[in-house]
User: Fold these one by one.
Assistant:
Number 1:
Amino acid sequence: MNERVRPARPHHKLTEDGRPMREVLSYSRRGSRFTPNQQAAWDAHHEAWWVPDDVVDRDDFDLTAWFGREAPLVVEIGCGIGESTAALAATRPGTNVLGIEVWVPGIADTLGKVGEAGLDNVRMIGVDAAWSMEHLFEPGSLAGVWTFFPDPWHKKKHNKRRLVNAAFAAVVASRLEVGAEWRLATDWADYAEQMVEVLDAEPLLEGGVTERWDERPLTRFERKGLDKGRDITDLCYRRV
C-alpha cells in the first residue's frame, strides 16, 4: 500500500497550548492493508479519482477542478465498499458524486467498482464527514446527500459518537439546495428513532420514514442485517 495514504482524518483540533485535543468521532480507525484486488484497483484509479488528504486541506482546494466540469453535486457519506456509490452514480451521468470514506481499503474497493462500471463522475476523499460538510461546501450547493448504514454505535455509552446528531443535521441541511433530498438508511431501530427525532427537529428539513428507496441497491452489508433479523429503515428528508 502507498504509505502516503493516511487511513484516518487529518483534521485534529488543538488546545490553546498546541496539544492534540481528543475529539468524539463518528468512526473508529480500521486496518489499512489492501487485498490484491484492492491494490490493483488503487493502482489503476487513485491518481485520477481519489483526492489526497493534503490537497483537501489546502485553502485553495477546488473540488470542481477534480471533476473537470460544472455539474450538480451529490455527496455520499460512508461509501463502504462502493456498492451503492457505483450503482447510483451509473444512473446519474450528469451528476458529480463525491464519496466520503475514511477506510482506505473501502476507497480502493469503490474505485474498482466505479472503474468496472466505466464511470467518470465519481471522486473520493478520505477525511471526516462532519469536517467536510462544514468546510468544503457552500450553503445551498448540494443536489443531494446519501448516508446509508452509518456506524450505529449500538452500545448506549457510545451513542454520542453517532454521525446523525443535531449539529451535523443543521450543517447538512444548510448545504442542501432547496428541494434537495437527504436519503438515509439504517438497520438499527433505535438509531432510526434517533434520526427521526433529530431530523424532525431541524427547521430546514421536512420528511420522515419512507418505503425502501428502490434506487438503492441491496448491498452485502444490508443482507447481513437482514440475515440477523433486523428491519431496514429508509428515511428521506428534503430541504425547505
Number 2:
Amino acid sequence: MAWNDPDWGKKNSGGPPDLDEVWRRFNQKLNAMFGGKGGSGGPTGGGPMSGGKMAAGLGLIPVLVILIWLGSGFYIVNAGERGVVLRFGKFVETTQPGPRWHFPYPIEAAEVVNMQQVRTVEVGYRANVKSKILKESLMLTDDENIIDIQFAVQYILKSPEEYLFNNRHPDDAVHQAAETAIREIVGKSKMDFVLYEGRAEIATRAAKLMQDILDRYKTGISISKVTMQNAQPPEQVQAAFDDAVKAGQDKERAKNEGQAYANDVIPRARGAASRLLEESLGYKQRVIANAEGDASRFKQILVEYSKAPKVTRDRMYLDTVQQMMSNSSKVLVDQKGGNSLLYLPLDKLIQSAGASSTFLADAPPVKAAEAAAPAAESTARSREAFRSREREVRP
C-alpha cells in the first residue's frame, strides 16, 4: 500500500492503526474505569455526573503519588549498623538499629553504615604474599639494611559521622597511615630485631602509632589488629644473607662451647686453689701450734731444771734414749762384769722367716727349693752363733 493511499489508517485496512482511534479507545477505557459509559457509536457519558467522577479520579493520583513518596522514606537499620540522616546535605542525626523513617528525597537522605564489619588493608602485597608490591614492601632499617615486609591491618568503625564526613577516602587514609607507621618503626630498628625476635613488638607499636595518626585526622576508625605476614631480606641478596646467618650461628655455637668449657674448668681450678689455700692455712696453724707447744714445754722444763738440775738432766737423758731405742730393732744387754752382747730379736727373725717362706711358696718349685737352702743355712748359722755366745756369757 502506498503512503498516499486514501484508505491508509482505516480500521479494516492492513496498515498501522489510526492515532485518533487509539486515543479514543484510551478515553473510553478511562471513563469506564471511573464510572462513565462509552462505546463505538453510543454516548460517551459526557454529562455533568460523569465529569465529576473523572475529576475525583484524577484527584486521587496526586494523593497516591504523595503516599508513595512518603513511603520511600522508610528504611531499616540492622544490628551492628547505624543510620546517618542528612537534611539537604547536612548531618542531622544518627539512628540506632530498627525500622526508621526520614523525609524522602530531596529533603532528607539516609545512609546505613556497618559498624561491626572488619575491614582489611594489605600493605606490600595483594591477596597473596607472593604477589608482592615492592614499592610498599621494601624498607630501610636503622643499620642501613633493606628488608622486605608484608603485613595486613584490620580495623572497624567507631564513629560513622567522622568516617563519612571528615575524610574523602578514609580507607586510603588507613593504607597510607599503615605504611607511614611501619616505615617509621622499621627505620628505628635493627635488621635482626625486625626479622626475628621483634615481630610482635613491631606489630604492637605500629598499631598504636597508626591509631594516633587516624585519631589526629578524625577518621572515626579503630585499629583492631596488625599482622606481620612476612619479613625477609630482598630476594637478590637472600643467598648472601643465609651465609651470614650461618656464620652467626657458628659464632654462637663456638661461644657456647667455649663458655661450657670455661664453666667446667674454672670451678675445678677454683676448687683446687681453695683446697691448697686451706691446706696451707692448716699447715701454718699446725706449725704455729707445734712451735707454741715446744716453747711452752721448754719453759716448763726450764722451771723444773732451775729447781733440780741433776734430776732434770737425767730425766731428759732417759727420755731421749728411750725415744731413740724405741725406733730400733736391736737390743743391747748391759751386764756387770761381762761384755755387752748384741742380741737379735727373735720375733723379728720369725717374721722375716715367715715372709721369705711366703715368697718361696709363690715362686716356682725349682727356684723355691734353691732359695730355701741358703735361708735354712743362714738360720742354722745364726742359731749356732747365738748358742756359742750364750755359753761364753755363762760363768
